[in-house]
Specification:
Pfam families: ROK. It is an enzyme of class 2 (transferase). This is N-acetylglucosamine kinase. Its EC number is 2.7.1.59. The protein folds into 2 domains: about 120 residues, Nucleotidyltransferase, domain 5 (2-Layer Sandwich); about 160 residues, Nucleotidyltransferase, domain 5 (2-Layer Sandwich). A hairpin with a 3-residue loop joins strand 1 and strand 2. Strands 3-2-1-4-7 form a 5-stranded mixed beta sheet, with helices on both faces. It has a 5-stranded mixed beta sheet with strand order 10-9-8-11-12, sandwiched between helices. The chain has a two-stranded antiparallel ribbon with strand order 5-6. The protein is an alpha/beta fold. The longest helix is centred in the C-terminal third of the chain and has 24 residues.
Length: about 300
């Protein structure tokens, strides 16, 4: 006999919608995928279809994980990879599906998933950090995400860049997609690594090319060293504000060989003399993190209701 689900999560990305149904021990009972539509009415309809599919496996809380933010004052979405900016997206999904959903940012979902069932299991507090197209994450303490009244907690990529490495390496201050200047994301994201290399060489290279060529191409090695300088200062900010026990890394750049060792060595040198640094680990959940984190969030909200 199939176990009744404890919760379900739907991870909404720019190219796919993935629904996952979880058993009480958090093993996967069922999963399904749909392509992400390119227009808003079709997107809302596709999300309602995914929710109806989830409901066929039994009653349980349902969470939705997606990139971007939802303004708690207006209910309107702000997202760069979905046709939903300026729309009351969560409310429209709930109305189309005829049931409530729990909404969570995808980076916060990964953090909750890793702090509860992954690489930061048992750590308090735990920080999740995505190093991909952008830079963002979340903070979990006591098994819950920290409250975020404005829904912007975890948008770490919009911290200002640390001045010392910017000056030392003569890096230009760049505009950020958020409308501000000099955000950490402009250099610490995967495209940011390419910008550092372009600043040194005058040529465009992919982040994958730069990481793979560190051992043989001096300019790529220097670009990586500059990126590590910036990343270390960024992690120091997290340590001096949040003081995490574990930092979990996800996103494309997290797969760079040796990254956790490089950052641990540098952070140990940079921190206040004699004080410990957090464990830096790679996320374990892979493709499951978004949906699993959404399901965990939905279960937490249901228990709080």
């Amino acid at each position: 006999m199939t176990a009744a689900p404890i919760a379900s999560g739907i991870d909404l990305g720019g190219t796919k919608i993935e629904a996952q149904v979880f058993a009480p021990d958090w093993t996967l009972l069922a999963r399904n995928r749909w392509p992400t539509p390119k227009d808003y009415p079709a997107l809302v309809a596709a999300m309602a279809e995914a929710i109806r599919w989830v409901e066929t496996h039994g009653p349980a809380p349902i969470g939705v994980s997606a990139a971007g933010l939802v303004n708690p004052a207006t209910g309107l979405a702000l997202t760069s990879n979905l046709p939903a900016t300026g729309q009351p997206f969560p409310a429209d999904i709930a109305a189309a599906a005829g049931r409530p959903i729990a909404w969570i940012n995808d980076c916060r979902a990964l953090t909750l998933s890793e702090a509860t069932l992954g690489a930061a299991r048992g750590a308090d507090p735990a920080v999740g950090l995505i190093l991909g197209t952008g830079v963002a994450g979340g903070v979990v303490s006591g098994g819950r995400l920290l409250p975020s009244p404005a829904a912007t907690g975890g948008e770490f990529g919009h911290f200002p860049l640390a001045a010392a490495p910017v000056i030392a390496h003569n890096l230009p201050i760049l505009p950020c997609g958020c409308g501000r200047q000099g955000c950490t994301e402009t250099y610490l994201s995967a495209p940011g690594l390419s910008r550092i290399a372009a600043h040194l060489t005058g040529t465009e290279n992919t982040p994958e090319t730069i990481v793979a060529g560190r051992a043989t191409t001096p300019a790529f090695a220097m670009a990586w060293e500059i990126w590590l300088d910036l990343a270390t200062e960024f992690l120091m900010t997290l340590c001096l504000t949040i003081d995490p026990q574990v930092i979990v890394l996800g996103g494309g750049l997290s797969r760079a060989p040796g990254l956790t060792d490089d950052l641990t060595r540098r952070l140990t040198r940079a921190t206040l003399k004699g004080f410990p640094v957090p464990a830096i680990r790679l996320a374990e959940g892979g493709d499951a993190s978004g949906a699993r984190g959404a399901a965990l969030h939905a279960l937490n909200e249901a228990r709080d209701a």
